[in-house]
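Hi L., both proteins are below.
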Amino acid sequence: MFFTTFAGGVSPYFYRWNETFLLLGTQFAGGVFLGTSLMHFLSDANETFGDLTKKTYPFAFMLACFGYLLTMFGDCVILYVIGRGRVGGGGSDDGGRAWENSEAVEVEHGKGDSHHPMFVKTSSLSDTILLILALCFHSVFEGIAVGVSSTKADAWRNLWTISLHKIFAAVAMGIALLRLIPKRPFLLTVAYSFAFGISSPIGVGIGIAIDATTEGKVADWMYAISMGIACGVFVYVAIHHLISKGFKPQEDSYFDTPFFKFLAVLLGVGVIAVVMIWD
């Protein structure tokens, strides 16, 4: 997971990717994420809670909402950091517009001297660190979903699902960095790719630690809670970071239409629907 993401992040420095492939691939990854969250994570969490308690409260759905809002809060942190970094520059309006493109996947091709909000110069080192942490926040929870998987088959399915999304996200991040910041900063590309790549493996380690230190019903409770939160994280990433905006081609593309994007998302959801037959 780390090496594929890291390679994807630095690859635009050496290789010019086909933008149509990235455009539809990002939408496909969004469909995979959406299908995984609702058909796999949410169903597993709800079933496990049903075995653990007789209460009729919708624990899994509540935790999915919590995971969604938690990830949304991470984006709010990004907006806050961007707003502080632009104080005295573009004014408060810049911070407001930055909300629309605050994540690496949401590559906006500006004109003139404008920069992608992810890479604006923040006012201090602490702001920069906070920004990186916020960008990698949801990746940690994605990794936890792998670490707490109940079976080897579940772990592999979660692994390839997350890796697919992260490869496209890392490539888009690398393209944005090289295109919108002058002097092609190789070291900065490596640093951002490393941070983005290592975040999910850290989450896997956390998930493994949770799974290894809990037994019996405690382990089941931790699994159900993790899957519920992960569902909300996946839904937010799928809708806001991949499907609704996704990758923006620099040049006009025949496939950059809602219909082709819908087909790509449909294919992603369909793949998960077929895979779930053997779950």
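That was the first. Here is the second:
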Amino acid sequence: MRYQAARCAHRLGILLPTHPNPLSLSHPPPFIPRISPSQGAIRAPYRTVMSSADWTAPLRDFSSKDPPVFEPSVEIEEETLPTYQPEKYYPVRQGEVLDDRYQVLAKLGYGVTSTVWLGRDLRDSKYVVLKIYITGQKKNHELEIYNRINAVEVEHPGSDLVRRLFDYFTITGPHSPHVCLVHEPMGISADTLLQKYIPGQTMTLDEMKSCIRQLLIVLDFLHSAAHIVHTDLQLKNLLLPIPDIKTLEDLEEREVNDPSLRKVLKDRTIYLSTVDNPGGSGLPLLSDFGEARFGDVENSDDIMPNMYRAPEVVLKESWDYKIDIWNVAMVAWDIVSPRHMFDGRNADGIFDDRVHLVEMIALMGPPPARFRERYEQGNWKDLAPIPDISLESLGTDIPGENKEGFFRWLRKALQWNAEDRPTATEFLFDEWLMEGLRRPNTEETKS
């Protein structure tokens, strides 16, 4: 479906993201990063040579301070992951330049597939986020998803509501290559916003609507134009734009003058992720496409966080775009309620598909005949007792007016059969979700 981006966004009361112009920092003299022999680390020969006539921003010197270090026996960051294998992670050093262009400034986070760093694009003099993947992957799935997104030629406002990929390249590591994605910097997640800065950790129904409208516009773009299923919609993957680049400048200066804790080993240094908060404002952009799938092929992977899984995923059957619609209902609920809609844990506190299914029965009613015929196969045996709960009882404390409209809207997505759920556009233009938007006058419409 084609859209005029600005007109559609104006109609829905959505602010398309703006990207601040990057500001240059102070200009210290260039340097060659050095490692103190007392630290026991060596500079490996595979590192990028750090000199280029194309740079418009200066290098920052991280070698003038003696940072605090952990004892080698203390496990930190990615070392604490059960699947950690050091040779799979690229041994990033603060201050090094990757791809003869991006200087590493500070560590932002880590995971089972990558580490994430704040960097500076020395050619364009702007901040970037560097996501460096572990080795052992024949192809980078997230990069393939972004290539599909960037290849879309249809004009659609949702394309501006996805976190941008600026660049990508391959790093030659000591063991094998590493793919690095270069993203635009973002602020805090919607999850962090709710957990740390919103009283009661919930928003009102009216406050939630703007976020959900924007999310559904993104999904319409992904589903109808890019043919992509996100599969992992949750508050931590909705990131707020950074309102002021000064927050990143301050973070960089703190790393130069007061370096983060780290552990220095013979073949690598492991850094603590920065705890500095970059803030954020406005409506969030959708990020993290590591679990996304192409929607124009058959899918049956076990995806989605446990408590967010749609019925067809719980029952390990094939699925399509409509799992994202189910997921939108979960995200909307999490914005206005301090607890997830589904718990799914048994008496021992272990997540149990049988418990999850009976909670669905309690909230949605028994599955219709055609659903049972499709998914019978013994899946309905030995279920736990059906709990005495309803959307209304779980949502008693949800703040806001017209909760009845909210519950009706949710039930559009909470369907056993995926084909009974609305499309992203149909869900967006629901009467309840549109409630409260100002109708543009004739002159505005003409303009």
